[in-house]
Amino acid sequence: MNSLQPSIIYDPVELLKRFDPQNKLERYYQVLLQENEKINLVSRETGGARFMNKDIFTGLKKLAAQSLLPFEKTNIAEIDNYLDIGSGGGFPAIPIILTRRIKQACLVERRKKKAGALRRMLLALDIKATIIDQSFEETSFEPVLDLITLRLVKLTPQLFERIFSVLKPDGYFVYYSAPDFDLTDKAVSGATYYHSISSGEATGCFTIFHKKV
After folding, report:
1. What is the pTM of this model?
2. By three-state DSSP, how is residue 173 classified?
3. What is the average per-residue pLDDT within 7-24?
4. How many helices (H) and strands (E) does the chain have?
């Protein structure tokens, strides 16, 4: 991936100003770092340290910007039913919930301690969302989801089939990486975007799948 030129060059600070003009994410960074003292949700480097960086939220802001970057390439105005798989410390789900118009949200995190941390963070942030502390494969969903995100879980053909089955027609699935298997025979359109915060080589990517009607 690092040999590819980015199709998106962005400034995390400017992107967050546009997506989060009321600075709702600042409180999220605070409660995340508080929870990170009890259970490892983000790395020490990402979480920041005062002696390393004047702004201890720099790493978290970068993750939040990456979480929201796919919305630069979609025309989703409102989301009725949103599902995040493998929510961990809340990226990308919490930045999306705090900055997008979402009616119902569900976060799947099979690890009990991380699911508990998510519950405490949502309570502190006054976010109403369902948290499921078992695997996505073990959970039943109606095919009414219009947005599904997947960040730190590897996408396999089997997992894609399962995600595709609960995504409603005209719905979107955002994978914060690039699939390594062929999807040409699926009833879905997809595009991978490589991005960087400078004009150098790409440092990350995401793929947006759109289920055909």
Report:
1. 0.92
2. strand
3. 95
4. 7, 8
Fold for the domain defined by 8-211: Rossmann fold (3.40.50)
Residue with tokens 């409660």: 31
- Every domain of the chain and the residues it spans: 8-211
Q: CB-side exposure of 188: number of CA atoms within 13 Å?
A: 22
The residues that bridge with 84 in the sheet, in sequence order, are 107, 149
23: buried, middle or exposed (CB in 10 Å: 19+, 13-18, 0-12)?
exposed
DSSP labels, the chain: -TTSPPSEE--HHHHHHHH-TT-THHHHHHHHHHHHTTS-SS-HHHH--TTT-SSTTHHHHHHHHHHHGGGGS----EEEEEEEES-TTTTTHHHHHHHSEEEEEEEE--SHHHHHHHHHHHHHTT---EEE-S-GGGS---S-EEEEEESSS---HHHHHHHHHHEEEEEEEEESS--SS--TTSSEEEEEEEEESSSSS--EEEEEEEE--
Give the pLDDT confidence of 34-78 residue by residue, as tens digits. Answer: 999 999 998 866 765 544 445 778 899 999 999 999 999 987 878
- Give the number of other Cβ atoms within 10 Å of residue 206's Cβ: 23
